[in-house]
Amino acid sequence: MNTNVFSNYRNWLDAQKIPKGKKAVLLSALTLFAEFGFNGTSTAKIAQTAGVSQATIFKYFKTKQDLLIAILQPIIQNFFPVYRDDFLAEWQNFNTLRELVHFIIHDRYRFLKENSDAFTILLSEMLTNQTIRRLFQKILQSSKPIFVKQFQKKLLQNGVRKDLDSLAVFRTLLGQLLTYFLQQKFAPQIKVNEENDLKEIEDQIIRAISGQKREAN
Question: Coiled-coil annotation: which residues (predicted)?
């Protein structure tokens, strides 16, 4: 497959020059794995949804595990290194903690929404699938030195508590964002107002990493 950078997995896949049947299998598996889980989805169901035979699936993918990796590997290998470099270049334009946090929350939340199915699968499989976990850890380890160094420097310049290291700040950012993303994914009955909710998330993060107190009403 072409390994061009992408910001939306479905759009990226649609642009790939691969056989129509293979593309249909990947898209069907993406939807079904996200809804029913990897173990809860049979190749028969994938074939039915894709409008192909099971033989077509195994023509392109030796096992269902290979199909899963074919979906997630481009996301892990293409997105994260490029995101790291683009992210670090982009956030040099912001000069206050509020601007930095606003950029991170809105930019990454938009990406999570646009790739909701893919990230639902990735988060689920990282808990139980050693192959996926190793792929992800390999990318993180290669990115960690440059990311941590620049991330820490920029944060300290903009008022982050000196007793917090960059990983603690990253966990705070990621934890808040993923919790909100998963809430909307798995508890859609809970009413949300994204603009207000994301603003509240920003406020909570800033208070946590800067030591600022909530302003009185």
Answer: none
